[in-house]
């Protein structure tokens, strides 16, 4: 129950962030709504398609789409307020990332997958909404170049896995612990601008690109 | 039967438009054929994958792919003629958009989905061929920035739904009415340059993009 | 058995090439690993999703992902060595392309598909890893503009089909013949810069793009 509420907060926040990104690229209302939907539920959809895990979440609960649409339309009405709530959105985005990652890990675990697929499922669920958003906005996905983002998804999934499989902790308690640790880690990563090492490879082919 | 003929005209027209777009980006013959195929059947394929609706149309009828290939190759032979037929292609593109939207709505309805998913299915089927074409051509999808396009798909799906579910009209008559109304609406949208409101959000992050 | 070894060599080589491409776009470690995975197994994943062929190869054998990750991380450590091995990588890339194409053709054949779908499956499996890599690196896919690449996939699939269906040759012998011919053809195409004709279409819309 609490998870459902958190999930709805998460997709709404991701959707509204997506709507702002669409606004930065001067999209029309359809573009805004589309980018919002993709940002919010794109990661989970890709995960479900890759794992053959049907029906998709939003096909089962189409009202999630409605909620995201309302959030996106709201965003176009009050962009100046959105801008001032930057800190809140950074927090909600962190919450969304961590929560989606845990959900991804849980679904993979329920499908009987092992550690590697659980981590992959967490990363896809947590990160791919943003990747798709950036692809549709025609830019290199930020998560490939920015501070610890996918890394948080991996660590959260690993923590969740260890808590349940090795320490025998109940699923909902493990979810809670992973959620709190993950959000703190993500906020620390933003604050200290922690990031993965960047691989800058320049060669003669560079000129051809 | 008439629908199948219209469908083939629709995918051929969308494919030829896609081939022209590929030509504008100086692609080789494979690129031209690929963009043509994606433009013509990409929307329906994404819909089927998201809904787990197997087998996909072109897997069941691979000769659709052959037809699109011929159209694409033909386009590379007579580009100057294509340019002069602009009005015809605008009409065929409108026909394709509306027809694909109705097909999408019908498939979702036959799968037992409600109104929201029927509209989503119509939009994906009608619009996503063009979205994929633009992604592969490395530009922001035109439908996110242009005159009423996705909006037509939504209105057509809504009309189709109301005609069948509330007015109890036969499916093939509803298809016909929605088709005629949709094409007229789309042509009017082009003529009067009607569009959805554009959301232009500029902030300090703009510089970072 | 030999095929499995060749397959692992193929995905590792494609993954390392992908990692270099990511390095050219200054991605962080996650971006490098992601692009490497997508380059190596993206084509096969798209094929399986489109054909509803579950579970995907890497879901069944997650250790393939681990191997690709190691290759990608290795690449970031020794980029200068990679640069000097260009000839080796061109060969491995040719091997990967041809091998993936044959695997794609074989899977489609085992699903009972006819010639058209077998060729499509070969092209998707052989070429789409590179297409996805370029999409995520935000550039027009090279295979749409470069020397004979998709063409090799088509010819290899056709040869494989003819050898088995018309000449009644054993599957593993047909695989071997198609593999050798394909690699030679691809290397000749690189050497002689053979390519498909380019379709360069300029019109007044060009300015609008």
Looking at this protein, list some descriptive labels.
homotrimer, 209 residues, mainly alpha, globular, disordered C terminus
General description of the model:
Three copies of one chain form a homotrimer. The relative contact order of chain A is 0.13. With 209 residues, the first copy, chain A, is mostly helical. Chain A starts with a helix and ends in a 10-residue tail after the last strand. In chain A, helix 2 runs antiparallel to helix 4 (63-77) and helix 6 (86-110) crosses helix 7. The longest helix of chain A is centred in the middle third of the chain and has 25 residues, at 86-110. The first copy, chain A, has helices at residues 2-24, 29-51, 57-60, 63-77, 79-84, 86-110, 115-136, 150-166, 171-191, and strands at 27-28, 198-199. Mean pLDDT of chain A is 87; it is low at 204-209.
Most extensive interface between two protein chains, with residue counts: A-B, 34 and 34 residues
Helical region count of chain A? 9
**Poorly predicted runs of 5 or more residues of chain A:** 204-209
What structural category do the secondary elements of chain A indicate?
Answer: mainly alpha
Q: Which value, in Å, is the CA radius of gyration of chain A?
A: 17 Å
What string, H for helix and E for strand, traces the elements of chain A in order? Answer: HEHHHHHHHHE
- Strand proportion of chain A, as a percent range, falls in under 5%
- Mean pLDDT across all residues of chain A, rounded? 87
Give the quaternary arrangement of the chains. homotrimer
